[in-house]
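notes to self, project folder thing:

trying the whole complex as one job this time. last attempt i did each chain seperately and stitching them together was a nightmare. two parts in total, labels are on each line so i dont mix them up again. if this works i'll redo the older ones the same way
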Amino acid sequence: MAYKQAGIFLVLTSFLYGCGDNIENSFCNAHKDVHQTHALDVSHVDIEYQASGSLTTTVQVPLTAIDLVSLEDTSRVLVVEAEKTCQLVSVNIDKQGQYWQAAYHIDCGQDNRLRKVSIALLDKFPTINEVEANIQTPAAHKHFVLNRQCDSPIFNF
Amino acid sequence: MISVLHRFFSTYTDRSALTKLFGFFSSGNDRPINPDSNYVDAQFRYHRRNVILVITLCYGLGYVCRLAFNVVKKPLMDAGVFTPEEVGMIGSTLLYGYALGKFTNGFLADHANVGRFFAAGILLSAMANLGMGFSHLAWLSALLWGINGWFQGFGAPSSVVSLASWYTNSERGRYYGIWSTAHSIGEGLTYLGIAWLIAAAPKGLGLSWEWGLWAPAMICVFAAFLLYRYLPDRPRTLGLPTIANWKGEHGQVDNAHQDESIWKTQLRVLAIPSIWILALASSSMYVTRYAINSWGNVYLQEIRGFDLFDANLFIFFNTVAGILGCLVYGLVSDKFFSARRPPANLIFGLLEIIPLFVIFYGPPNTTVLGIALVVYGFGLSGILASLGGLFAIDIAPKKVAGAAMGFIGIFSYLGAGMQDYISGKLIYSSEIIFAFPAKEQHFNIYFYNYDKPILFWVGASVLSIVLASSLWKIKAAD
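result (full assembly):
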C-alpha cells in the first residue's frame, strides 16, 4: 500500500516537472547569467517618462546594425499613442565610438494619457538580435533584455 | 432543507436520481444510543480528534483552490491572456459566488451529512480550478471562478456545523480558534507552495501559469478524499448521544425571546443599527484584506521590483503573522477588556493601519517592508476575527448567531468583490504599454500606477476603524 502511494506521488511529481517548458527556455534562463559579458555589444534603449508628460527615448545601436537615415526617421524607431497628440520636440543623433546614439524627446503634456510606446528596433532592423531596455515611469522602473530567441523578456539578470 | 427535498422527491418521483442525490447528502437518521459507555467515550475521543484535524487541514487545503488565481494574476497579465480589468473582474466573481454560497450553504449544511457535503464542495472547486487552467476566455474564466466561489462556500458552514456537533459551548471558542488558523495555513500554502511551482528557476520550478491552477486542483481532490473518509455525520446518527448530553453541559437559553421563532429573531437582528454599522465596517476591512491578498503580490512585483517568489514570500510572512493575530486578539479582548471588543478593535485597527501607511508610503527598504507586512498581518487578522464574526455574535441574540454572521458575511464579501473589480479598473486605467514588436513575437511590457488603488485600499481601512470605533459603547446581548 505504501509503495503504491509513493508510486503515485512520484508519477505526479515527475508529471509536474516534465510539463515545464524548460527545454525551450534553457537558453533564456542561461542568458540571465551571461548577458553582462556581452552587454556592451548589444543595442540599448533607455526611456524616461515623467509625470509632466515628457518622454525621452535614448537608443544606442551598433553602427553596423543601422544607418543614420533610418535613425533620423523617428517613425521608423518609435511610435507613441496617447489620448491626445504628442509633440516631437527634438531628435539628437551622435556617433559615439562604434555606436549611434539617438535621443528622441517627445512632449505629451501633463493632462494627456500615454497609452502605448512602440519601439521598432527588432521589427525594422533584422540585424539587431537583442535589446537591453531600461524604462522609468513615475510609478515604476523596469530593466530587462529582449532576445529574439526568447518568448518573454528576461528580468533580474 | 436537504431532508425536506429528499422527502419531497421520494414522494413524488419514486426514487429518481435526484432523490438518491439528496439522500446521499442528507444527514442520517438518529440511531438508538449505544448503552456501552466505554464504546461511546472511545467513539467521541476518536471522532473529536478527527473532526478538528480534518476540518482545519481540509479547510486550509481547500483555501488553496480559492486563492490560486491570485498567484497567477501577474503571469496571466504578462502573457497577455487577460488585461488587469479582466483579471479584476474574474477575481471578483469568486467573491460574489462565495458571498451567496456562504449564505445558502449555511442553511443546507444544517441538514446535511457534512463530511459528504464538504467533500463535494471541495471536489467541485477542484474541477473549477482544473477548468480555469484551460480557459483563455475572460467570460468563461469569470463563470468558472464565480461557480468556484459558490463551491468554496460549502466549507465554512460545514466546519461550523461540525464544531457545533462535536464540541460543547465552553470549549467551542478554543476549537474555533484552532479551525480559524486554517485560513492562514491555506494562504501560506498558496503564496509559498503554489508560487514556488510557477516562479522562475532557481527559486521555483518555472512551470507555466496553468499549473498554478492545476496543482491546487490536485490538492483539493486529496482534501475531498480526506473529508469523505474522516469527517463524520452528527453524533446521533452514529448511535452516540449529543455532545451536550455526553459532556453533561447545557447552554443557557435567553428567556426573553425563548418563545420567539428563529425566523422572527433573525428578522429582528436585521433591525439592529449596530449590526448594519458592523457590516459596513467589516465590508470596508474586507476591501483592504482582499486588496492585499489579491493585488499585494502584483504590487510588490510591479512597483517594488521583487520577483514572483519573493513577492509571495512577503505575503506568506504576513499570513503567518495572521495566525498569531487571531489567537492574540481573543486573548487580549477576553483577558484585558473583559470580553469587550471595541477597545481591542481600536488597538488591532491601529496595528493594521499604521503598517499599511509604512508599506505604501514608507521608506523603500526591504527590512522595513517585511516588518510592516508582518505587523499588518497580525493587526488585520485580529480585527477581522472581531468584525467578521466575533463582535456580531456578541451583539446578536445567540440563537441566531448564524444569521448575524451570514448577514455580515454577505456584506463583507460584496465589499471584497467590489474591491477586486474597482482595483482592477483603477489599475487598468493607468496602463502604459511599451511594445517591442519583432518578426518572431511581440514583446509587451506593461506599466501600471498604483497611486489611486492604494488610496482606495488605505481609505477603506480608515473608514472601517472609524465605523468600528463608533460602536464603543455597544454591549453584548444574551
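what i see at first glance: The first strand of chain A starts at residue 43 and ends at 49.
need to look closer tmrw
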